[in-house]
Amino acid sequence: MTGKGRLGTWISVDGVEGTGKTTIATHLAQILPVEPAPEFSDSVFGSALRGAVAASPHYISSSPLGQSLVFLADFLEVHASSVAPRLDLGVSVVSDRGYLSKYSYQEVVLSNTLGPMPTRRLLDEIFAHLPSPSLTIHLTAPESCLYERLLSRDGHCDPARLAFIARAAAANKAHLARTHVLHAVTIDTNQRLDDVLREVTDVVRRRL
């Protein structure tokens, strides 16, 4: 299924850490007729997940599979409770860390436990029950640029974090290359912020 048959337009802003997803999603919601989707749902388990991530962002469950399923279940809930109802009313929605990010991040996490192909089969089955966004904004940037941004933002960025980011970036590109359900535009954010915002805004305005 795709989001094309709905009245509203679902925009998903995706990319690895440091590419500027939140900055761009916030900008779009401020200057265009689109409403932001929440990162976590308002359900009981969504609220619990929000608190768990705030307390320990890299450890939620002793089971890697259980942890991934929790994140994916709440993303499905976010779509069902916050995205789909607004789309059906003709309201356009922008998601920060949406469809592509959720798929690729969990692919990297689960591949170590399940193996690459079983992981893709599992994720493909889960995502088959979720309509795809009308437009995916796929943000990229060179590793050196991401390192500097994360170091400035968080005060740290060790080799293990960079290695995970590189795997997630590769998973994003691989998924876009093999999928037929995502209409994606890739934008390099290693340029002046004003130029990036102008480029993204033009792309989204045309889609709306």
What's the N-to-C terminus distance?
Answer: 19 Å
The tally of strands reads 5
Tell me the overall shape: globular
Low-confidence runs of at least 5 consecutive residues:
1-5
Walk me through this protein's architecture.
The model is unreliable at 1-5 (pLDDT under 50). The chain is 59% helix and 12% strand. The relative contact order is 0.20. Helix 4 runs antiparallel to helix 5 and helix 4 crosses helix 7. It is an alpha/beta fold and 208 residues long. The protein starts with 9 loop residues before the first strand and ends with a helix. The chain has eight helices and five strands, in the order βαβααβααβααβα. Strands 2-3-1-4-5 form a five-stranded parallel beta sheet, with helices on both faces. The chain has a single domain (3-207), classed as Rossmann fold.
